[in-house]
């Protein structure tokens, strides 16, 4: 994977080292709200400050050299930041200490001597300095000593002081430019005497020194693990954005020495390539599947002589393919859009894809899963499998985007426990994705267990503990969630069968069944055997009883309380068939269901002595029949309490 990232960086550097500075910048996260950049211009004669505002543009991160903040353990000296507290406190003193003698350093010295005041020595050096807002014309009543006295007997005095100063400055800026509640200030940058500090050569040299040159000051002779050349190399990859191997535990180091010089060595040129490649991937080949962020890392199989423009278009092509597999829209739209990238279609055998799923929390980057060596043709197979499944859903059910089974749909069908917004049990879900991309078999039993677990989440309302959206609080909402999920679960297994990930058993001959053509077609397309079909038809009968109960005012459908959602053995199911038969008579719908009941009972009795389905499989296929039949009732236009229930199509 590291070699693939290096190759991308080397393409960018063909334009010269000037691209390095652009490549080091970080893309600003986009928001639905209006975003702005604020420039704080300090005059070294009057020591007044003037704020300027600009709307965020696509090139803003490059224009203002936004390379991220320094590590949280370091003093913040970068003049373009997303935190105003860094700019008015740590930035100028820290930058002054780093700069070589020159015009910029002299100007900062004038500001420090005349416009920066300090809190008491009881406060740590990091938070000791702050702009004098009274001298600068922001707040005439501002008195730093008075502010300090207000908090001196409290804990976390530094944090409280800076919170108060931040509040004053941000309020001043928002009032000055009439910014509303929805408007966001994404970045702050510094000007001195009308000139952007980020444009100053001395400042740019500091950025480059910190990012690359400084790292190689203590390099040693060795063999570069990327290019194989004998060069000055380092093994410190901590400043890379992606985590390639564990450097926090001594047990991972060479001979338990705490050094990693035998793990991976990188020369100066390869180091630059990798840094550029990482930034490019982060800015151009980043996407999400469900709630999981990932990077798409393409790797060349054969050398390819391309330039930056070609790389940019090729990245859009790759991104479009993967995003379509993740969230399918329409096959005609896909084929029309892919026509724009016809030049890349002929080169699909010249590269492979690597998918790096990760979690990022402040400065921590954790790799969740790396799916390697995916041929581009596999992504196309997934797109066409989604389309075939959607067409099947259209034929069996109706024309709805609900039946486009893609990677995002799978995310919401495999329940994973979560804490806040972070998944705790992502490993099983990522194993499924890995198996799909890698053409490995997936356990049908595992899927059914997860589907039954999913139904339990709807039944008991435990949405806050899982990656499952709450459909609503009404009984009808819960029922809708179950119906939608079970129909999608069956189509997911069909989708996986098309892709060769799910091997099915021997399907029954539906011509032997005396049931409606619609039921026959569904059983046949889903590939049910006799035992699965028996449970499916039993679920259809339960659906008809539940519908009758609902029409009589029982919104909770009492018949569903007879099901044990954790699993039911065949003996419990045999007893339940008797109850269902009595309910069909009670609600005077036996005459409409007598043939269906007879066919179900015949299959059940025929297979009773060698029943192979597990307790959870029994429940899954019963609920599959319930969901199918109930959906057909609703979509046929039948009214329940004078309201037609329509499933929502958000998931």
The percentage helix is 40-55%
Number of domains: 3
Q: What is the C-alpha radius of gyration, as a whole number of Å?
A: 32 Å
What is the percentage of strand-forming residues? 5-15%
Q: Quote the distance from N terminus to C terminus.
A: 33 Å
Number of helices: 22
Q: State the secondary-structure class.
A: alpha+beta
* Global geometry: elongated
Low-confidence stretches: 638-651
Please tally the β strands and state the result.
15
Mean pLDDT: 86
Characterise this structure.
This protein is an alpha+beta fold and about 650 residues long. Helices cover about 45% and strands about 15% of the residues. It has three domains: about 1-30 and about 220-285, no CATH class; about 30-210, no CATH class; about 400-635, no CATH class. It is built from 22 helices and 15 strands. It is elongated and about 95 Å long. Residues about 640-650 have low confidence and may be disordered.
How does the SSE layout of this entry go?
Blueprint: H1 2-12, H2 18-23, E1 35-42, E2 49-55, H3 60-63, H4 84-98, H5 103-114, E3 116-118, E4 129-131, H6 144-151, H7 157-176, E5 184-192, E6 195-196, H8 201-211, E7 220-223, E8 230-234, E9 266-267, H9 268-284, E10 286-289, E11 292-300, H10 308-326, H11 331-338, H12 342-345, E12 351-361, E13 364-374, H13 376-396, H14 407-413, E14 418-419, E15 422-423, H15 426-438, H16 444-460, H17 475-498, H18 517-526, H19 530-551, H20 570-586, H21 590-607, H22 615-635
Parallel strand pairs: 1-5
Antiparallel strand pairs: 1-2, 3-4, 5-6, 7-8, 8-9, 10-11, 11-12, 12-13, 14-15
Helix pairs in contact: 1-9, 4-5, 10-13, 13-17, 16-17, 16-22, 17-22, 19-20, 19-21, 19-22, 20-21
């Amino acid at each position: 994977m590291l070699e693939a990232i290096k190759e991308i960086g080397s393409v960018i550097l063909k334009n010269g080292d000037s691209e390095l500075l652009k490549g080091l910048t970080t893309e600003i996260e986009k928001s639905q709200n209006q975003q702005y950049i604020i420039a704080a211009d300090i005059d070294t004669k009057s020591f007044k400050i003037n704020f300027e505002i600009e709307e965020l543009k696509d090139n803003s991160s490059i224009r203002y050299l936004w390379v991220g903040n320094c590590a949280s353990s370091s003093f913040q000296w970068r003049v373009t930041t997303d935190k105003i507290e860094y700019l008015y406190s740590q930035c100028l003193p820290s930058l002054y200490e780093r700069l070589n003698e020159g015009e910029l350093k002299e100007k900062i010295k004038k500001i420090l001597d005349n416009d920066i005041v300090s809190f008491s020595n009881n406060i740590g050096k990091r938070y000791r300095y702050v702009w004098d807002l009274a001298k600068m014309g922001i707040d005439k009543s501002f008195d730093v000593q008075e502010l300090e006295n207000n908090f001196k007997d409290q804990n976390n005095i530094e944090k409280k002081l800076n919170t108060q100063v931040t509040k004053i400055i941000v309020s001043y800026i928002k009032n000055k430019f009439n910014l509303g509640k929805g408007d966001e200030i994404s970045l702050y940058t510094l000007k001195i005497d009308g000139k952007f500090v980020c444009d100053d050569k001395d400042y740019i040299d500091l950025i480059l020194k910190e990012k690359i040159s400084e790292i190689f000051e203590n390099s040693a002779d060795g063999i570069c693990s990327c290019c194989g050349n004998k060069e000055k190399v380092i093994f410190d990859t901590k400043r890379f954005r992606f985590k390639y191997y564990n450097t926090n535990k001594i047990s991972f180091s060479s001979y338990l020495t705490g050094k990693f010089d035998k793990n991976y060595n990188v020369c100066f040129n390869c180091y630059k390539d990798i840094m550029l490649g990482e930034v490019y991937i982060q800015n151009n080949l980043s996407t999400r599947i469900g709630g999981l962020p990932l990077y798409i890392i393409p790797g060349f199989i054969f050398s390819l002589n391309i330039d930056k423009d070609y790389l940019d278009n090729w990245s859009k092509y790759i991104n479009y393919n993967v995003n379509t597999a993740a969230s399918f829209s329409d096959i005609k739209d896909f084929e029309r859009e892919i026509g724009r990238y016809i030049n890349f279609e002929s080169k699909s055998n010249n590269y492979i894809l690597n998918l790096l799923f990760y979690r990022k929390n402040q400065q921590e980057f954790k790799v969740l899963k790396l799916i390697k060596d995916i041929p581009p043709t596999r992504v196309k197979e997934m797109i066409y499998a989604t389309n075939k499944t959607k067409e099947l859903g259209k034929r069996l059910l109706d024309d709805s985007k609900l039946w486009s089974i893609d990677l995002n749909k799978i995310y919401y069908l495999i329940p994973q426990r979560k804490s806040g917004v972070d998944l705790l049990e992502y490993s099983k879900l990522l194993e499924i994705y890995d198996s799909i991309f890698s053409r490995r078999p997936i356990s049908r039993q595992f899927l059914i267990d997860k589907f039954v677990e999913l139904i339990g989440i709807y039944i008991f309302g435990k949405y806050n503990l899982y990656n499952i959206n709450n459909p609503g609080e009404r009984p009808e909402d819960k029922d809708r969630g179950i119906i939608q999920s079970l129909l999608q679960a069956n189509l997911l297994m069909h989708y996986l069968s098309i892709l060769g990930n799910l091997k099915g058993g021997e399907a029954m001959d539906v011509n032997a069944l005396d049931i409606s053509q619609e039921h026959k077609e569904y059983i046949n397309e889903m590939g049910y055997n006799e035992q699965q079909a028996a449970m499916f038809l039993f679920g259809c009968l339960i659906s008809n009883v539940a519908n009758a109960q609902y029409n009589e005012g029982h919104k909770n459908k009492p018949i569903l309380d007879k099901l044990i959602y954790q699993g039911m053995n065949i003996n419990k199911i045999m007893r339940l068939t008797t109850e269902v038969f009595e309910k069909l008579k009670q609600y005077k719908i036996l005459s409409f269901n007598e043939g269906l009941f007879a066919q179900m009972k015949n299959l059940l009795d025929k297979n009773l002595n060698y029943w192979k389905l597990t307790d959870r499989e029994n429940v899954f296929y019963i609920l599959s029949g319930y969901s199918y039949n109930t959906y057909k009732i609703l979509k046929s236009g039948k009214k329940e309490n004078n309201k037609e229930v329509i499933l929502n199509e958000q998931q």
